[in-house]
Amino acid sequence: MNETDSIDKPNTKPRPWWQRIPLTLQIVIALILAIALGIALGAGNPSPANKSFIETLAIPAELVLKALRALATPLILMAVLHTFMTTSIPGTAGRRLAVLLFTNTTVAIVIGLFVANVLRPGTWGRLAPPGGAQTAPKSFDPWGLLRDAVPQAILQPLVDNNVIQLIVIALSFAIVLRAIKSEQIAQRKRGYQAIEDIIGILFDCIIRILHWVIALVPLAVFGIVGKTVAEKGFEPFKSLGAFVVAVLVGLALQACYYLTRVKFGSWVNPLNFLRGGTDAFLTAFSTDSSVATMPITFEVLQTKIGLRESSASLGALVGSNFNNDGTALYEAMSALFISQVIGQNLSIPQQFVVILTSIFASVGAAGIPEAGLVTMTLVFSSVGLPTQYIALLITVDWFLDRCRTVINVMGDMTVSALLDGKKPRSLDEA
After folding, report:
1. Dihedral pair phi/psi, residue 12, rounded to 5°
2. Model-level pTM?
3. Residue 111 has pLDDT above 90, yes or no
4. CA nearest neighbour of 83 among 322, 380, 404
5. 141 vs 6: CA distance, rounded Å
6. If we measure between CA atoms, which residue out of 229, 224, 237, 220 comes closest to residue 38?
7. If you write DSSP's letter for every residue of 142-192 in order, what string do you get?
8. In percent, how much of the chain has pLDDT > 70?
């Protein structure tokens, strides 16, 4: 072997066995061990000697959630900049695509809030709000909300975790950078490439740090579930089961909305739409990633459903970078669920703030691992909900995340069908 071969040969050293265990299985194992520990510590009736140890169990969850809050704002900022810099968005079709994506996401959030208000899954159990939890004001000032959308300092949204101000800054820089990129391409300059590379490197760095935090999620699940079972028994988990059912109902209603749009807004038959998209849906559920499913989605839209390549690429390749309907629905329902569990019911104006924040938080989040978990901290903070109980949702998030990924992919396919219009492609186009 020469020196060049030794340099170019990739590092094939196997990872340790604990790193090869899937995250889902790690969470399930942590959940079982936590329940066993909670039962051993009293299961709702702990002894005074165990109370100090029980309190320390919540520390890993607090650290993980604190890290997620710290990463959330710079992550979304870089995600939006990276998406706008690397995505090719045509003019007229791009505007129609933006309207469709915004409409679908808004409908998803409204459906989520509607289901959560009707079924009220949080009323099946009660948890005491943590001491010092901030309570959002009940009054609502739309003009004040508009004024607050512009920050006093450019770095203030990163400190305050204000997602609306953050998106305003991110979109402003993204639009300017795209304009500069277009000008420099027209003038055959290469300066824009350096900016794009820097943004890509920063985005990749934050993603890698996020992977470290996500690797600690099973430890957080073990701590918060063990503490909850030890202090409250299994009563809080009844409401968590009701929450799972409510989310599945909300996702099913969103799927019905998609099929209705396909029926009346395109030439595609809804049954053929479902049959043709089976491979994409199964891939989305198994991989838990709409980005990883993107090539399959693009292929089935053309080969099995019969859409034009331009429509398939806009919905599956471009739209998927911005479309997170299932995640937005889940975040809105999670906020309402936690507010019900702790008895801090959100008013209609506060739910409107949840809608706005969820829409903005979903922009550019498609490529973020565990995007719903990361951006949920921003949604909770916008209406004064304690983020500590997000760790409880992690116990069911591994399953619901796969379900909402299917809805995300179905939303991409729906947008493609609507962009394709009401006339199928001709033989010449095929």
Report:
1. -105, 20
2. 0.78
3. yes
4. 322
5. 65
6. 229
7. HHHHHHHTS-SSTTHHHHHT-HHHHHHHHHHHHHHHHHHHHHHHHTT--HH
8. 81
